[in-house]
Amino acid sequence: MKPQLLAAAALLCTMCTGASAQNALLFEACGRMPAAQRTECLEAAGAATRPGAKPAAKRSPPSAALPVIGAPLDLAGAIAACEYLIPSLKDRRDGAAEANNLASPEVLGVHYAAVDARPDAICIVNRQSRKVTVWKFGDVFADDNALAYLGYRAAIRQDVREGRYADFVARAKERLTHDFRDPLAVQYRDLYIGEGDGEPTLCGEFNGKNRFGVYVGFRRFYITEGNPGQTEPSGPDWDPNYYFNRTWPAKCGTRRAQVE
Description:
The protein is an alpha+beta fold. 31% of the residues lie in helices and 21% in strands. α1 (3-12) packs across α3. It is elongated and about 65 Å long.
């Protein structure tokens, strides 16, 4: 254990309050340290927060919790919490194992082994809240803003799964048409929620007006949360190898719910 690393981590926790119930913030603080020191700091924090060690302060960053909190957190529950926040981890589940050197009474760490060209990853979950407090992908740590955004995306996925997609559809339409001359005149047909790459996707066809006020014809489109969307090329630009045509089956091939 490196006391100087823990001391440095504590200095980074400028908003820390409380006592033994707040040990897990050490892990978050380590994530803010220079890359060369982070792994060693995380291991030191794991040792310091085990029974008998001096407690440290904890502040839970804004991140998504699983909808249901049940029995005491085990490895399966921690993996579920990590995959709820980061769906792309699902295809790496076979390489997931408990990170014993990062465990404490407050948190449970999951190590995802490197696969193909993707580096290994660390996901640390608070045992009580089921919130992801540290997310490390290779040498990159997610900060509070990144965890908050991942939580926001997770909440949207949860809403859509449970049939609450009206807000998602309204935001998607607004992003799709924000540069149109007359966005209120845009027509839609065959709108549905697709399940592209694990993210809710609004798929369908739209018809907008040109600068002469004439409708130009329906074209397919798809759009996910936070992205500008992709539209089908038309006329001489149409090509089966165009990005839209290549990605449409993966994005919109599976229908979750019909919208319009």
